[in-house]
Amino acid sequence: MEKLVLLMLLLAGICAVASDHFRKYHFVKDEKSWFDAQSYCRENHTDLATIESQEETEKVFKITGGFTDAWIGLYYDKENWQWSNGDNVSYYNWTSSLNCTSVDSKGEWVDSACHDNKHFMCYNETRESYILIDQPKTWYEAQQYCRKNYTDLVSIKNNDEDKKIKEKANGNPVWIANQERGKWNDAGCHNTSPFFCYNESCTDASCTKYHFVKTDMNWSAAQTHCRDKYTDLATVHSQEEAKQLLDILNISANAWIGIYRDGNENWQWSNGDAVTYNMRRTKLFCATVNPDGDWTDSVCHDKKHFMCYDNGKKLFLVNENKTWEEAVEYCRSNHTDLVSIESEQELQRVYREANEASSSHVWLGLLQSCTFGFWYWVDGAQSCYDNWAPEPRCQSGYNQCGVMTARSDSKWTEKPCTERFNFICYNGKWTGFVF
Q1: What is the total count of domains within the chain?
Q2: Best exposed site among 47, 163, 298, 365 by fewest CB in 10 Å?
Q3: Closest CA to 107 of 41, 33, 54
Q4: Closest among 208, 252, 254, 213 to 231, alpha carbons compared
């Protein structure tokens, strides 16, 4: 199969500031019905508040400042409870069964008559960047193109987004992902039109998310929990950053972070990052951060609250044997792309997933270009990091792709792209190459 590789000039950005699930909440003291509150939130923010965990429930409860009731975005559509923004309902905090939902002074959800007037909660979510593709395609072709090259076909959630799309489209009809009828013009899905894709943008408030876990665990159990649920125990590179994080998460007691002392008595971060902060006390082997942002070594078996972080790159091991091209197609259809590895930290995360594979190796998003004499990540990742064993060679006449050994070690090697292995996909921002 012929491949056309479009080499793109990519710009890399770095950002890492605390944020809860990309959302900034706004408590509105005006009393409105649920429908009026929904309209207000969509016009001025993103939507009525969505709450997906006990953590978020507590945060919203604090913001309301003791008001007895405030609308949130949960409603009943005659068959199921739904969030106003379309998210799946995976967390419940009920006290009882009407058609709209408010949060009471205890932080519990109360079903209420939708026409009652209450205060309400809005949120702002990460903004997206929109890309107009001036190539007529059917709706299905447009969706496939966007998912392969960007994130997805654009969805319009409020008037502000609607205005942005209209401005970029210059009044021309374009495909969007929304299926609802109304002001948007529905058309036969096999008609051809230009269309909008979007990329999820990385802003200072959304790249790294921190989570404070109020369950007492020892350091090792906390590390396991963070790696299972998020990315790892929190990495904090300065006292100022620690203090800022503690203020945002409202932490009032010592909490485990990801720094520990190894067998050679050197301090290490759990995720493999370099330690640039000097520990003042070094008698013990694990460390906590206190409410003032100071780090203190502690007994590793003590049980404490802890901080995790999530860098937004979710990994998915697929226990199916596919060729490399089939793996790329699967990942781009169902997630973002085949996994790339840009650091020792990411290597260890991918290796933990690879340990669960049913094949001897797992495909990585590495492809060889013998013509130009280099290997590259197909998702566009730019990194000099590698873990080859040994350095691969170009083999004329063969398409070679990169794999990681699944269980013996985390080394990379090359295999013919037509061989079949398990593979690892990820969800995250896509900046890669089109085939």
Answers
A1: 4
A2: 163
A3: 54
A4: 208
